[in-house]
Amino acid sequence: MKKLASLLLAAAMILSLAACSKQGDDTKTQAGTGSYSSDAAFAFTDSAITAAGEGSGYEIDGTHLTIEASGVYLLSGECSDGSVEVKKGTTGVTLILDGLELESSDTAPIACNKSTEVTILAAEGSVNALNDSEKNNDDEYPDNENAENAVIKCKDGSQVTICGTGTLNITANGKNGIKSGATTDAEGEASLTIKELTLSISAPVNDAINAEQLLNIESGTLNISAADDAVHSDLVLNIGADRADGPTISIAECCEGLEAAELSVLSGDISILSSDDCMNAANSDLTGHAFSMKISGGSITAYSTEGDGFDSNGDLIISGGTVIVWTAKRGGNQPLDADGTLSVTGGTVLAAGASSGMGVGISAEQAYVTFGSSGGMGSLVSKGDVVSVKDSSGNELCSVAASCDAAYVFFSSADLSDGSGYSLYAGSESAADGTAQTGTSSGGNTGGGMRPGGNMGDKQPPSGQPGGQKAGAEPPAKPE
Hints:
Blueprint: H1 2-20, E1 30-31, E2 36-37, E3 40-44, E4 49-52, E5 58-61, E6 64-67, E7 71-79, E8 83-86, E9 93-103, E10 110-112, E11 117-122, E12 127-131, E13 150-154, E14 159-164, E15 167-171, E16 176-180, E17 191-194, E18 198-203, E19 209-211, E20 214-217, E21 221-226, E22 231-233, E23 236-239, E24 248-253, E25 258-260, E26 262-265, E27 269-274, E28 279-281, E29 292-295, E30 299-304, E31 310-312, E32 315-318, E33 322-327, E34 336-338, E35 342-344, E36 348-353, E37 362-372, E38 386-391, E39 396-401, E40 408-412, E41 421-426, E42 429-435, E43 437-441, E44 448-450
Parallel strand pairs: 3-7, 6-8, 7-9, 8-10, 9-11, 9-12, 10-13, 11-14, 12-15, 13-16, 14-17, 15-18, 16-19, 17-20, 18-21, 19-22, 20-23, 21-24, 22-25, 23-26, 24-27, 25-28, 26-29, 27-30, 28-31, 29-32, 30-33, 31-34, 32-35, 33-36, 35-37
Antiparallel strand pairs: 1-2, 3-4, 5-6, 36-40, 37-40, 37-43, 38-39, 38-41, 41-42, 42-44
């Protein structure tokens, strides 16, 4: 029985690594009694790194570890100034974090150099922590030649997967939490994939996750707080996967939540609190690019205090999932904004904001209804109201608590019928009526209006300066 149990544990570990790793058969590991064996195991302390195992593809210099050959390497222990580096061009590397607490004084605790293939795996049941210092930022400390500007740095041409069933906590005191590089002719294709693990990132200086090429967040639980973007890709960002549960992403603080030139949400449970756009399809460095934001599944709850809800520099296409989005500011800030066309072909969408409309072209195969306050000067609902949409028989189609005051509400659902009348309620009080429609319109405050005797007559517009800036406050600065 002991032999059988050992074999089963070994098989489970191999399957886990195969699921996480891009290298598959290149990884070799087996499960021991309560711990993992590997090509080499390293225990970090403040003064040294202790190595065990027969592996020879590494070099130790004080508390700095360099991986020079493919293999499976187990990392544990505590060190207040140490680092791990995967040498340029090294492929087939798996780093198993098993109770590792690693901090670095002037560089990245983990760096995957150019053209590397690395899997960073948080071992089952383990809690790991990676931190850097403010010196790990060559903008602020130009004399620091060791600065990598991220806690986990993945350079150009690197293909990195961060996974496992354990926990990884990252505190980015320098600049970014995780940074992935670009695809180049010299270094090859770059990508960053995150799945399975519980990942918490605090980035009080810049972005929590920043990629230059391809970023896939397939599954797992992510808890993020960032000074700038929570999750950013210069080019492609994919959240979840078709016919899969997808990740749970909770963004408690950020300037912008999810940003990429091509942003797709396929599945997952996402909540965003942002000062600027909750989701943005843009990149000012790309000229003539076909920017896009596509939502085909999952559940998204988003609230912007200063900017747009969803903002696409191209088309915004919603074909599935559940979308609840609120924007608190007037002026040019809208719950749904697109330079191209807003297309709704499926899903459930409730988008509400303090402005009097969206001012965006709407192309809807699925019926939608809009509700707007009289003249756009009052509020249909107040922050904290339970907002619901009901049909003419009083059947409730949607119910959600208002994140802010709103003068405009857009609602689309498969439960709506083109040409039928619907009512918006704030609590038990009727607020406005509207008629569902399909096809193409210019957006804005069409299809609905304040119901006489409704609850918005004595409400005042939200206070603040035009353009989405709080009186007496500066918005977070956007980095170059």
